[in-house]
Amino acid sequence: MAWTPTDLVALSRLGRLESHDRIGLVTTQPSLEAALAAIGAADIGLRDEAERILSDADLHGVQIVTWADAAYPELLRQIANPPLILYVLGTLPAAQPGIAVVGTRSCTVQYGKPATEKLVEPWVRAGCSIISGLAAGIDTLAHEAALRWKGATVAVIASGIGRITPKSARALSERIAEHGGAVVSEHPFHVAALPPYFPARNRIIVGLSKAVVVVESKDTGGALITAAFATQAQRPLWSVPGPITSSRSIGTNALIAAGTARMLRCAEDVLADLQIASEPAVVSPLPADLEAMGADAFDVDAAAARWQTTPSDASVRLLQYELSGQVEQLPGARYRAK
Fold it and tell me: Which helix (H) or strand (E) holds 334?
């Protein structure tokens, strides 16, 4: 009897096994029954649970990609402990080289935010997909920047796709799936995230990527775990240097100092290393109202006065310009045209 998708999902729900152990059973045993017999386990409701998982995924438009499928990402197969099952909402970018962008949840507005946006734009323009973890901070900024520049982005999550929290992350995940990207998990739809699932998902981020970039990181945290997985998988690891006065630069600077990561000076460093041609940036002229604000920083009240509108309307307009990449927000609720 051959392995069926139901059998593979059933095996994925058997406890006390690592993913590589499950894959070992699939590649050496002819069936689920033989695999269970080989490890002295019994099918106590495994197939019934698998059928419910398959039905639930189908109901919610989630694709199940197994290790045995041709659609399983080839790069992901190469890591030490690849997942047996992927639950995918949206479309995995098959031909686009992926660049992982990770960092601290508590990133800095004055450095981490503009650095992430400055890096992601040329990567997207060069045809790369952006891989990250849908967490607050650098992850969200990377996903948002990819969407802003009409690129594909992949969010790898630690919960099932139906248990994404908070609401802002759930809304972002829906936008990602709707705009040519994918939300990926190794857990069934209704599984809540547990603490061990967060570091485990970082290996998938690395596995889907041709290079890994850490933008900001404290001396501990998930970004450094991802960096360790990148080193283990022998994926190019890059780190954005930061000011020595910032706690968010301790981890990134340490990676560079130890020689674990290469120092990233600009987006073209990664593209050149991956032998991907960069596309010249298209500079759009600023709208007349932004041009009128000049090169100096300004606040909402100044914009409202110049545009002869209310502060509320000016705030909405500034948000739109910020999302389009034409305005950057500075500390102290001030803005500057790019």
Answer: strand 334-337
Give the pair of three-digit tokens for residue 38: 């080989």
Whether residues 204 and 260 share a domain: the answer is yes
Q: Which amino acid type is present at position 256? A: I
Domain that holds residue 261: 98-273
- What number of helices (H) and strands (E) belong to the chain? 15, 12
Question: What CA–CA distance (Å, rounded) separates 62 from 78?
Answer: 24
Last residue of some domain: 55, 90, 125?
Answer: 90
What's the whole-model pTM score? 0.82
Q: How far apart are CA 255 and CA 268, in angstroms?
A: 20
Residues 118 and 244 in one domain: yes
pLDDT tens, residue by residue, 147-203: 999 999 999 999 999 999 999 999 999 999 999 999 999 999 999 999 999 999 999
Q: Hey, how many other C-beta atoms are within 10 angstroms of the C-beta on 303?
A: 23
List C-alpha distances in Å: 175 to 40, 120, 155, 182, 235: 45, 17, 11, 9, 28
Whether residue 200 sits in one domain with residue 113? yes
Q: What is the rounded CA–CA span in Å between residue 175 and residue 323?
A: 14
Model pLDDT for residues 77-117, shown as the tens digit of each residue? 999 999 999 999 999 988 789 999 999 999 999 999 999 99
Q: What's the total number of domains in the chain?
A: 3
Classify 122 as helix, strand or coil: helix
Q: What is the pLDDT of residues 14-47, one digit of tens each?
A: 988 999 999 999 999 999 999 999 999 988 899 9
The last residue of one of the domains, among 217, 239, 273, is 273
| 121 in the same domain as 177 | yes
